[in-house]
Design brief:
The chain is an alpha/beta fold. It has a single domain, classed as 3-Layer(aba) Sandwich (Uracil-DNA Glycosylase, subunit E). It is built from nine helices and six strands. The protein has a six-stranded mixed beta sheet with strand order 1-3-2-4-6-5, with helices on both faces. The longest helix has 18 residues. The chain is globular and about 40 Å long. It binds uracil (URA). Uracil (URA) binds next to loops.
């Protein structure tokens, strides 16, 4: 049986892809391991790589505000990324890097066992929902994946780059809050 202790031990020092050679810190996760809501981002940026925690840079500040809008905070959700190490220059993670890292994410999902997974952006949605996921068309829609409710919204970095997308993201957040209230009512 898998345990958090075993998973963290196995993941620490991972060299399964070349990102292991350039990272400062492996960014495992943040938040509550017993959460019913899990957020999955893309991969660490510069600040995350420096501090070893996900979403602590400018996108993270916006993410905190987004969580607050729907009565959540980091103590109530679990936050991880599709890749645990920073892609140099913040480029998109390569398929080979995502594949090398997928096992860690799968084990995190299995241990948290969330009812709801929120994909932050296209990369996480393509990994967890479907390969041909189109964020502009399919954000805010629910998918059933492995017995869980999975939805994608815009990545906070995309909302920083293009604030005109914020009203759509806000509608997605309201949809997420509605579903949390419907199926996670006992802890939220
Ligand atoms: N962007 C992500 O996708 N993840 C982080 O942890 C930080 C920025």
């Amino acid at each position: 049986m898998d345990t958090w202790e075993k998973l963290k031990q196995d993941c620490a020092g991972c060299m399964a892809c070349s990102l292991g050679q350039t990272r400062r810190h492996l960014v495992f996760a943040d938040g509550f391991e017993g959460a019913e809501v899990m957020l999955v981002g893309e991969g660490p940026g510069e600040q995350e790589d420096k501090q070893g925690l996900p979403f602590v840079g400018p996108a993270g500040k916006l993410l905190d505000q987004m969580l607050e809008m729907i009565d959540l905070d980091r103590s109530k959700v679990y936050i991880a990324n599709t890749v645990k190490c920073r892609p140099p220059g913040n480029r998109d993670p390569l398929a080979v890097e995502q594949e090398a890292c997928r096992g860690w994410l799968d084990r995190q999902i299995a241990l948290v066992d969330p009812k709801i997974i929120v994909c932050l952006g296209r990369i996480a949605a393509m990994e967890l929902i479907k390969e041909d996921f189109r964020i502009t068309r399919e954000h805010g829609q629910w998918f059933q994946v492995g017995g869980r409710r999975v939805i994608a919204t815009y990545h906070p970095s995309a909302l920083l780059r293009d604030p005109t997308k914020r009203p759509e993201a806000f509608m997605d957040l309201r949809e997420i809050r509605k579903e949390i209230r419907a199926i996670c009512a006992h802890t939220y």
